[in-house]
Design brief:
single chain; 930 residues; alpha/beta; five-stranded parallel sheet; three-stranded antiparallel sheet; 13 strands; 6% strand; disordered N terminus; BTAD domain-containing putative transcriptional regulator
Length: 930
């Protein structure tokens, strides 16, 4: 274990935050950075949304620049980790909607502590004690005392106390009761309500000859829990008290006396009610191991409860029954099973009284001996199983109270509950553990199809079987039905079935059999929803993108945000959708298809129109934060419209919503919402230019152009043509765009609006430059500058001047180009277009370098980099570093130049920019010189 972390980085949270590089402690810096790093370490290898980071670091009063500050912290932490360990044993990844620390868990002290505690279970007492002491030795003080934001660390405190209790138990077995009395007194004073510590102290006192003190310890604990909590001590502690009172000989031996299961007596039945396990059970290795650990670590004087929950058809019952059969020998007194039919499509729910009667019969109670009253049945059931170790599987449960009536008391029994609901009340009041099932992996899905069909289809038609699994959404029920269809119809190939499933309108009907089906399973959950949740479920199915937000639901359903969020949370509780991050709810593909089938055409069109209007307002607000606009489009939102406060927040919003926006364009086009489609395409163009998403843009641009033409909206057509040009220009792909540029200019001339003439004259000029017609291009740009000045279109003037400078630079007129570029820079700055200002600063730096003004070039390049970093402008930062690297190289500062060019290359490659090739060539040339 230790060998794995001798080199590289190690992270410690079991005390003040600590980062070690090859054993040397790093200085982390300001409190905010420590708070951020602590969150990433605690959630290692999981994404921490940036909203959670902001909330944790600043609580209810984040500054307006909170996201920018977080980006800065992340950048500095990355540099710190990279410098400390260039091999990259730990990296901070940007993974929307936030960040994650990618690291081998063995480099985390709390992970090693957990593994040592888990590894101690079941070992002989000397080994247990040693492993637990080693685990406790990893604590260096109070967890994360030096970080802000009140990180959630209660599980680590619980882990420490559990390790202490386990270590003391092992040492009691080794006869060290005298040495432990003082420590236990202090621990009980610090944690007065931990029954296990009280029990340990009673044993230590009794074995040390202090019987009266052992009884007094129990009485003091009894008074405290009755007076302060209104409850009695647990059954284990009560039994120990009775043992002390009667001087039970078992207490005198050092070993911990387990509760021995009562062997069956003549006339007493050992029930074995589990249904047959499905043959060829596939996957769920992690879930089975989780249940194994829960069973192995259970308290043998109490009942362990696990709630297995998940979506319809996910395989909850199959998992519970399979595990029960595999671990049957752990429950010598019987296996009890009952289905409550809480979500059965064609059966009435079963009442607890009926289940109790069945259980009592199975346990040997004759029919005339079963009480009529529910409370009496509960009492008899508990009395019979009180000292038996049984497994109780309660399938398809609905009500937590029903489950409580069937919980066996003590003796190390285990209860498995399956439900489509989370049944959180059992966690709160009964200490239940929660296991939520997800869909199978692709590999498991393929194996399941092969298993059901009975032959290796994945070897005969590998691509088709993978597509089949995808269309079934890796849902076990859907996969079994699809495979059964192949068994029933041997003339079908997998490709035939894939063809049927590929039609969204018929997929659910295809995944249906005479007595079961995905649609039927979903229908039961839907019918159990109250009307307002049913409305929300249908609205969620309408949203065409990958995920659904409370803002979108509020807009579609015409409700407030708080209500929308609460309803989505309730649907997640019913496992009709999944909250993958805070405020981000995802529907399984088959669930989405089912929800859409519930909407008639009129409802669907009206809701989609409201959703389009919602996103138009949201996009317009977000794009204006990225940079000022002057295209004449404006949309007013309402209280449901998300309103980021900064440019970085706006970009983050676009990053998360981009899959939804592209899907919405397609859905709007299919529904004939042409005006909203072209407007949405135009509004997202600012984001696409900034993030360089040219490939995805091309996927929706033609929809926008077609939509504008379908409505005969000439302004829309010219704006989409200009947006297409803008994206192509950014991607360096203007060759062959002259025809579009000429068309856009003709339309602008027809409209007669100066701002559109300025835009299209500049567009036409750049298209001419790409064709080599430079002098002609210059005339158009000079005309555009004069027109913008006459019309007072400052941003239009600056844009043309910036592009005019590029053309003059190409012609070798560097001084003239610098004059144009300087003026453009000044106008951008005056008008608050910080993104364009950063571009102009970098362009001017490049011109100064070409003019031999190296100090001025370096100054502007550094300014451009800082502006870009502060505004989350990756392309601008990459370009600024490219210019800065070339200037430093010319000044003989090769090491610094290499560093800037290397970072420029990394950024350009991440963006997929063709400029990466130029930077790579420059970097290789510089490296070869060195």
């Amino acid at each position: 274990m230790a060998d794995r972390s001798k080199s590289g980085l190690e992270f410690g949270v079991l005390g003040p935050l600590q980062v070690l590089a090859d054993g040397r402690q790093l200085v982390i810096g300001r409190k905010g950075m420590r708070g951020l790093l602590a969150m990433l370490v605690l959630e290692a290898n999981r994404v921490v949304p940036i909203d959670e980071i902001v909330d944790s670091l600043w609580a209810d009063d984040p500054p307006a620049t909170a996201r920018t500050i977080v980006h800065g912290y992340v950048s500095r932490l990355r540099r710190m980790l990279e410098q400390a360990d260039p091999a990259g044993s730990a990296r901070i990844l940007t993974t929307p909607p936030g960040y994650q620390l990618s690291v081998d868990p063995w480099r985390l002290d709390f992970h090693r502590a957990r593994q040592l505690v888990a590894g101690a279970r079941g070992k002989p007492a000397p080994i247990r004690a040693q492993l637990l002491r080693e685990s406790l030795g990893l604590w260096r003080g109070q967890v994360l005392t030096d970080v802000p934001g009140d990180p959630i660390t209660t599980d680590l405190e619980e882990l420490r106390l559990a390790a202490v209790e386990e270590r003391i138990e092992a040492e009691l077995e080794l006869g060290r009761h005298l040495e432990l009395v003082g420590e236990l007194r202090q621990l009980v004073n610090e944690h007065p309500f931990r029954e296990r510590l009280v029990g340990h102290m009673m044993r230590a006192l009794y074995r040390s000859g202090q019987r009266a003190d052992a009884l007094d310890a129990y009485q003091r604990f009894h008074r405290r829990v009755v007076d302060e909590l209104g409850i009695d001590p647990g059954p284990g502690l009560r039994v120990l008290h009775e043992q002390v009172l009667r001087d039970d000989p078992a207490l005198s031996s050092p070993g911990h006396a387990e509760v021995v299961s009562v062997p069956p007596r003549p006339g007493v039945v050992v029930p074995a009610q589990l249904p047959a396990a499905a043959s060829g059970f596939i996957g769920r290795d992690e879930e089975l191991a989780w249940l194994d650990r829960l069973c192995d670590a259970r308290d043998l004087t109490a009942t362990t409860i696990a709630v297995v929950n998940g979506a319809p058809g996910i395989g909850k019952s199959e998992l519970a029954v399979t595990w029960g059969h595999r671990r049957a020998e752990q429950f010598p007194d019987g296996l009890l099973f009952a289905s409550f039919n809480g979500f059965a499509p064609d059966r009435d729910p079963v009442e607890p009284a009926e289940v109790l009667a069945r259980f009592l019969h199975a346990l040997g109670v004759p029919a005339d001996g079963v009480p009529r009253d529910l409370d009496d049945r509960v009492g008899l059931y508990r009395s019979i199983v009180a000292k038996r170790r049984v497994l109780v599987v309660l399938d398809d449960a609905w009500d937590p109270e029903h489950v409580r009536l069937l919980l066996p008391p003590g003796a190390g029994s285990v209860v498995l509950v399956t439900s489509r609901r989370r049944l959180e009340a059992l966690v709160v009041s009964n200490g239940a553990r929660m296991l939520t099932l997800d869909t199978l992996s692709e590999e498991e899905s393929v194996r399941l199809v092969d298993e059901v069909v009975g032959k290796p289809l994945s070897e005969q038609e590998p691509a088709a079987v993978r597509k089949l699994a995808e269309l079934c959404g890796n849902l076990p029920l859907a996969l079994r039905i699809a495979a059964a269809k192949l068994v029933f119809s041997p003339e079908w190939t997998v490709a035939d079935l894939v063809g049927r499933l590929s039609d969204d309108d018929s997929r659910l009907r295809t995944l249906d059999l005479a007595d079961t089906g995905v649609g039927r399973a979903l229908a039961v959950s839907y019918r159990n929803l109250p009307p307002e949740l049913a409305d929300t479920f249908r609205a969620a199915g309408l949203v065409p993108g990958r995920w659904v937000s409370p803002h979108a639901i509020a807009a579609v359903c015409d409700i407030d945000l708080t209500t929308a969020a609460a309803r989505l949370a309730d649907l997640a509780d019913a496992h009709l959708l999944v909250e993958q991050w805070r405020g981000g709810f995802v529907l399984h593909d088959l669930v989405r298809l089912y929800a859409r089938e519930l909407l008639d055409d009129q409802d669907r069109d009206g809701a989609l129109c409201r959703l389009m209007d919602h996103y138009l307002a949201a996009c317009d607000h977000a794009r204006r934060l990225i940079r000022p606009v002057h295209d004449g489009l404006s949309f007013t939102g309402d209280k449901t419209t998300p309103k980021p406060a900064t440019s970085a927040q706006a970009l983050s919003w676009f990053d998360k919503e981009w899959p939804n926006l592209t899907a919405l364009v397609h859905a709007g086009a299919d529904a004939g919402l042409h005006r909203q489609v072209w407007q949405l395409v135009r509004l997202v163009h600012t984001y696409c230019v900034t993030r360089l998403v040219s490939r995805e843009w091309r996927g929706i641009a033609e929809f926008g152009l077609t939509a504008a033409r379908a409505t005969h909206d000439r302004r829309g057509e010219v704006l989409i043509l200009h947006a297409m040009h803008d994206i192509n220009n950014r991607a360096g792909a203007l060759r062959g765009t002259l025809e579009h540029a000429q068309l856009a200019h003709r339309i602008a001339a027809e409209l007669g609006e100066p701002r559109y003439l300025v835009m299209t004259l500049d567009q036409l000029a750049l298209a001419l430059v790409a064709e080599g017609r430079v002098e002609e291009a210059l005339n158009h740009q000079r005309e555009a500058v004069e027109l913008a000045r006459r019309d007072g279109d400052a941003l239009g003037e600056a844009t043309v001047l910036n592009n005019l400078a590029q053309v003059e630079q190409r012609l070798g007129h560097r001084e003239t180009a610098a004059q144009h570029q300087f003026l453009a820079m000044e106008i951008y700055h005056r008008n608050g277009d910080e993104r364009a200002y950063a571009v102009a600063v970098n362009n001017l730096a490049e011109l100064y370098a070409e003019l031999g003004l190296l100090p001025e070039a370096e100054e502007h390049a550094r300014q451009g980099v800082e502006l870009a970093r502060g505004g989350s402008m990756q392309f601008e930062e990459a370009f600024g570093r490219q210019v800065l690297g070339s200037v430093l190289a010319r000044r003989g500062e090769r090491v610094a130049a290499q560093a800037e060019l290397a970072e420029s290359l990394r950024l350009f490659e991440r963006l997929g920019s063709p400029r990466a090739m130029l930077v790579r060539t420059a970097l290789e040339a510089l490296t070869s010189e060195v």
